[in-house]
Amino acid sequence: MVGVPARNEATTIESVARAADAGLKDLGTAHNSMIVLADNGSTDGTPTRFLEAATRTRQLVIQSGGTGTGKGTNVLALMRAALEHGAAHLILLDADVRSGEAAWIARLGSAVDGDTPTLAVPTYRRNRYEANTTNHLASPLVAALFGAPLQQPIGGEFAMNRALLEQARHWPAPASASLYGIDIWLTTNALREGHRVVEVPLGVKLHNSPFPKILSLPQQVLDALFHVTLRLDRPRPAEMDMRMSRRSAVDTEARKQDPATVAKVVKAAAGYLATHHAVVSSMFPTVAGLRVAPWGHRILTQDWPHILADGVEALARGQFQPARDHLIALYINRVLSFWDEIADLTGAEIDALLDRQATETVKAVADRPITFTGVTQATGFDRGTWTAIS
Fold first, then answer.
1. What is the distance of C-alpha 317 from the center of its chain?
2. Minimal CA–CA distance to 201: which of 150, 243, 166?
3. Contact call for residues 72 and 180 (beta carbons, < 8 A)
4. How far apart, in whole angstroms, are the C-alpha atoms of residue 45 and residue 240?
5. Which residues contact 245 (CB under 8 A, 6 or more apart)?
6. What Pfam families does this protein map onto (predicted)?
């Protein structure tokens, strides 16, 4: 089964369906495969456009819900459908991708062959001003907490075999896993349980920029990551020596984000930090040594790993929501500082910088006596202290 989670992606859904169909045809499996669209409340005719692709592979549309749901609702519905239809593999494709290739199907599917529970995650090359949540939250924290130096643990194009699907049906899912927290929830649970996680190179990824969602998407990702982290006994630091020359995440494209959107984000982060200055400084002692920047704090590569470690310590002390929410404000400052930091760097130099950031995060977390009590948080999700500002 190839599953496509979607909401209002009418402009790209046909090409995604055709790429999936071509990939299944090349594998010789189109006759006993399915391409399934999981839609939650599209108002632009996405399901109709999907069916108009007229693929050789059987198509199916499932409605996963509407208001109050998100990407994760669709993915979880696709996982249930894969089990119900007896699928050997489930391959997930983002509905807004414009660079999808038929070859992705074979690469992802072959990576999860066999009876050992296996999750395949992608590696891409992307515009240097994208992948911010991946670069500064997901990748370093997964390395520091779950023992895997994955380049893009929330990439979108995933694959899993039936053995992993059977395991995943028993994983506790917080509400953020029904939103944009779904990818990190899948990756970290697989790692937490010791299942096989493999990286699959997919080349360049072109899709709609997620930056306009920077005031909501990273919070959902961090929420889901924190929920799974609390099920550990202590951090599991990754062995980073073998990865220092492997990252290849930055493409030659360097398209900056919309200035009006950036200005809105800067204002929101500045307002948040002004409101919560005292508690942020107390919870994140690293902040005291930072220089001032036009957007608030100038957080450089050498600073960010210690801020992340401050956040993990706060989580371990039981400060789930404040650690999550305050870290998001600091993360926005890190993104803006990073953009300034990489202005004159090559793609390879940026990759090396991100490798160094992940390596130093592993070390910063490992150097602290952090243990988790096993006490999990309520599984609901709300924007908490961000609600009044953004």
1. 25
2. 150
3. yes
4. 46
5. none
6. Glycos_transf_2
pLDDT in tens, 2-45: 999 999 999 999 999 999 999 999 998 889 999 999 999 899 99
Q: Roughly how many angstroms between the first and final C-alpha of the chain, as a whole number?
A: 38
Using DSSP's 3-state secondary structure scheme, residue 180 falls into coil
Sheet holding 118-125, edge to edge: 58-63, 34-39, 2-6, 89-92, 159-161, 118-125, 196-204
Nearest-angstrom CA–CA distance, 310 and 317: 11
Q: Are strands 2-6 and 34-39 parallel, antiparallel or unpaired?
A: parallel
**For 93-214, where are the E strands, in sequence order?**
118-125, 159-161, 196-204
State mean pLDDT over 46-71: 89
Q: Are 35 and 57 within 8 A, CB to CB? A: yes
Count other Cβ atoms within 10 Å, centred on residue 390: 17
Question: 281: helix, coil or strand?
Answer: helix
CB 12 within 8 A of CB 95: yes
Helix (H) or strand (E) holding 63: strand 58-63
CA distance 91 to 180: 18
Domains in the chain: ranges and CATH: 2-243 (3.90.550.10), 259-386 (no CATH)
Instruction: Calculate the CA 333 to chain-centre distance.
Output: 19
